[in-house]
Amino acid sequence: MVGGVSLGAHVAARWAVANPDRCAGLVLALPAWTGTPDGAPAALAARASAEIVRTQGLATALSGTSGWLHDELTRAWHGYGEQLVPHLEEAAESLAPTLDELGSLDVPVGIVGCTDDPVHPIAVARAWAQALPRAVLVTTTLDAYPHALGRAVQAWRQAR
Q: Which InterPro entries does this UniProt record tie to the protein (predicted)?
């Protein structure tokens, strides 16, 4: 089993494509794009965040967030230290699996997408779910997002 959120979902799915005989299933939340990141809102947000951190500092970059997202980004971004900007820039350029690659996976997959997240469009989660032969898609909203991975695990159980 492998899983992830946003870029982590991309990494997990790419690993599964490269190692289909070693993967028993996927738990994916908020895939952000398919294939190349060209123009994807999450890629643009990562680039913009990197620029704000570089020019105005981490506190300014975090000041535009609130609630659970602020708490999560504060925890995670502080942990990157000096590597935050390079990691954000790398994330903005990373490849996600293509729909054809996803279609090659014959494992149960639970996917969760947010219906109101402009950075991780629900259309991407729907496209991934349609491409994956054994996927179950569940949806949530940003307000309820902290429970998303649990919902993705439940979807994975349904896909089995």
A: AB_hydrolase_fold
